Amino acid sequence: MSAGAPPSGPLAIEAEHLEKRYGKDIRALRDLSFQVERGTIFALLGPNGAGKSTAVKILTTMTRPDAGRARVAGIDAIANPQRVRRVIGCVAQKDAVDLEATGRENIMLQGQLYGMPSADLHGRVIALLDHFQLTEAADRVSRTYSGGMRRKLGVAMGLVHRPEVLFLDEPTTGLDPEARSSLWAEIHRLATNDGVSVLLTTHYLDEADHLAQRVAIIDEGRVVTEGSPDQLKSRLRGDAINIQLDADAVVDEALRALGNQNGRLRELTNEGRAVRARVDDGASAVPGVLASLEAAGVVVASVTVSRPSLDDVYLSHTGHSFNAAGAGDSR
Amino acid sequence: MSTLVMQPTHMAVRYLRALWRQPLYVVMQLVQPVIWLFLFGQLFKNVATLPGFGGVSYIDYLAPGVLVMNALLSNGWSGTLYLTDMDRGVLDRFLATPARRSSFLIGQLIYWAMLTVIQSVILVALAMLGGARFDGGPLSVLALVAAAVLLGTVMACFSNALALRLRDQNTVIAANVMLVLPLCFVSSVFLPQALMPGWIRTVAGFNPVNWAVEAGRQSIVAHVDWSIVLTRLGGLAALAVVFGFLAVRSFRAYQRAV
Cβ separation of A63 and B255 shorter than 8 Å? Predict the structure, then answer.
């Protein structure tokens, strides 16, 4: 694998005020802006249909925005798509593997399409096959590969021409936990050892939390908040307290009782009989919460206290919980 | 310069390798033309006694026509290759590379041309086994295969353009089924133009399938009229360029749509 250049020079990615419509009704992107520093991993986090894939399509020159600017490795992706294509690698949501060809043939053809000289390419393909533990299966038709192997082959193809910027569109969707963690390790290594800048889209909160130096949460085609996972979480002061009530009928009563806690509880919300709130010190707040609920005659099924998660960040910015967000077409 | 030649070659190798792994495909594609050749050859045996056939036997007359028809049928599947690639995300992966759009098309057309040549050689051999004669000599048979390849290229480009613009498997297959038979019947594939009603003869003059058959049929006469061969091949080549242009443009239409 190549020893990448140290992060320097222009930003890896600049997206400024991107707009994209599909037909009349669908506004996939509305004023989407973000920047990715060289040699870092940046995650676009959001539910299906939030606009992640559309943003990636624009930055990888697969489609043009209706408005806005996109620069990749300092090159204008709208004016110079051909130059951008040379310096980026793309790993699509679908495996994009030619199933009738062997693993080796897949990577070879990809390198040939970048016009790599064959002496260089042959060595590169052997190194990549070895690196992704595909050497043994290299000359088998990839129809016989497991899902995890196909995904690895997809990543190997995206890297064959030693790109400066790598786009990973939902890289671990549909992978088993083992394949997932090995791909995580690889993505992490690419950024830290090889200096590759990585933009990944994901709808897994833990993936963004685990991998990315910076996360932009996007919802309905725009960035709702951005920062390092820790920054995002610490902007939410305090812990989350989750109270599971015994019956739906007592929810109003419970909310009234908790609202009278001298303002100690913030952001009091409920989804059905699950009541959530934010409090500075969760553990010491629990006895008071329980006492006031008991005084109001509300029966509590369970109480949990948790450190803020990206899910909480998402909730606080979009007003709906991540898992409840719409699961539609990915755009 | 080298990528201009090498990238189409690499793409052609990709398709040929897949064919090499599924050699039965060549045979499957040939079943229909072989049935036409021998069934029609027998069924219409006595038609050849009519004036207009120039005294040749019906299987002699039919063989070039079946070669042309086979090229149409076979190349009409072309678009389904892109549809499979679209479905798996392979086409998008290719289009995200800096390789030329025309390389993807030309590479695939090289594959279709080679498949057409292989199938044509098999059909010529089978026709000869069935008693057909090619009195025009080897060069005129070569012109027949060239006509089949050029017409096939036009058909492949049409099918590709349809696949890239409509992105629907059923439409591409339906277009193939819908077009091939009428185009063949409004041409001298089965009957000489002298026996056609006037209006069909007029339409046939504009039918590229008829151009291919006219060029190819010179392979069965002892005195080949090379002016017929060359004008018809020239017309087909020009049409292939036009349809090739259309197909390359369709990549852009595809990218706008997805």
Answer: yes
SS3 A29: strand
Q: Which residues of B touch A86 (CB under 8 A)?
A: 98
For chain B, domain boundaries: 2-257
Q: Give A-chain residues touching B98 at CB under 8 angstroms.
A: 82, 85-86, 113-115
Query: Over chain B, what is the mean pLDDT?
Result: 93
Interface mutation vs chain B, best among A112, A122, A144, A166, most B CBs within 10 Å: A112
A99 at B interface, C-beta within 8 A: yes
- Tell me the β-bridge partners of A70: A15
Q: A194 CA to chain B: closest CA distance, Å? A: 21
Residues 6+ apart with CB under 8 A from A17: A31, A32, A33, A67, A68, A69
CB of B45 within 8 Å of a chain A CB? The answer is no
Model pLDDT for residues A77-97, shown as the tens digit of each residue: 999 999 999 999 999 888 899
Inform me whether the C-beta atom of residue A112 falls under 8 Å from chain B C-beta atoms. Answer: yes
The domains of chain A are located at 13-233, 236-320
Is residue B217 within 8 A of residue B147, CB to CB? The reply is: no
What digits encode the pLDDT tens for the residues B214-234?
999 999 999 999 999 999 999
- Residue B195: alpha-carbon gap to chain centroid: 25
Q: Which two tokens stand for residue A193?
A: 């050892």
CATH 3.40.50.2000 fits A236-320, yes or no: no
Count the Cβ atoms, other than its own, within 10 Å of residue A127: 14
What is A13-233's CATH superfamily? Answer: P-loop containing nucleotide triphosphate hydrolases (3.40.50.300)
Q: What are the Cα distances from residue A56, in Å, to A7, A48, A61, B229?
A: 22, 14, 8, 52
